Amino acid sequence: MLKKLTGKVRLILVFSFSYLLDFGECLAFRSKPQPTPYHDFDYFIFSQRWPLTTCAEWEATKSGNTCNLPQDKHLWTIHGIWPTKTGQEGPLFCPSSIHFNPDELAPIINDLTTYWVNVEANTKLNSFWAHEWKKHGTCASVLPLLDSVTNYFRMGLKWNRDYDIASILSKEGIEPGNSYDVATIYNAIKNSINKEPSIQCVIDKETKESYISEIRICLDKNFQVIDCNPTNPIHRIRFGLNTNCSQKKQVQYIASITPTSDTNYRTIEKEYIDYQGEYEGHMRYLSLYNFLWTLMWLTL
Ligand SMILES: *[C@@H]1O[C@H](CO)[C@@H](O)[C@H](O)[C@H]1NC(C)=O
């Protein structure tokens, strides 16, 4: 009887604490991107990802997650074209009369499934594209060349061919399956496009290893490559090069995901695609939550 009651109380406490924390998180921690009521932007960030790193992150997020990977094991795939205002993230989720209609992707569906692959296999086929359209495409659509779902995705495919990261790196002898100083990778890209790129990594919290995950280049509204502005919070730069990768240790450019290495990725930073500050907020929330939870189990 007493045990039952304790169980109930415990449950109620856990729930009320998690509500409290959710509430606190809303107030203090989470800075979820808000829809912007305007389309004003200065340039584009074109973000390409190393799909194996994305896959490792995805598999680490939840057991049972599976990945789509392109046949061509050297392909860097598209993440998105992100209209950006100098010094800030976004605009995002702009008001637009153009709704995402997957039928419009029919003519380019084969290219999209290869070059703009939705790595997260156990999600709806169109979910990744729908997300990129709603979050970024709606804002880009004020430019004539990007004024439809098809045009937005076609432009991404074109830029993926124009700025072929795998061959840029390969020309400098940078190949998957090795680790490099991020400066080596950075300079290979910079020397090829003659502008400053931005490079993102994710970290394995346990081993502290860095994995290269994204390479971004920036283009103006005439689609000319420009320097990526390191002050934009979206790049999360700490110091030195326009990268959030470790500049003290080499970064991994992985060639495969082996089942044995799977556990290594369990603790990899969950990717909160480009939600500024959300990751930090979430980790704080999690550790606080775990702490309180443990406390309750110990005391009750
Ligand atoms: C680097 O930035 C990306 C995206 O902006 C983020 O997902 C990743 O967690 C960051 N990595 C580090 C090591 O801070």
TrEMBL record:
Per the UniProt record, one Pfam family is: Ribonuclease_T2
Question: PROSITE patterns under this entry?
Answer: RNASE_T2_2
Q: Record's GO cellular component, any one?
A: lysosome
| Annotated protein name in UniProt | Uncharacterized protein
Please list the reactions this protein catalyses.
a guanylyl-uridine-RNA = a 3'-end 2',3'-cyclophospho-GMP-RNA + a 5'-end dephospho-uridine-RNA; an adenylyl-uridine-RNA = a 3'-end 2',3'-cyclophospho-AMP-RNA + a 5'-end dephospho-uridine-RNA
Source organism per UniProt: Hypothenemus hampei
Q: Which GO terms describe its biological process?
A: RNA catabolic process
PANTHER family (UniProt xref): RIBONUCLEASE T2
| InterPro entries, per database record | Ribonuclease_T2_eukaryotic, RNase_T2-like, RNase_T2-like_sf, RNase_T2_His_AS_2
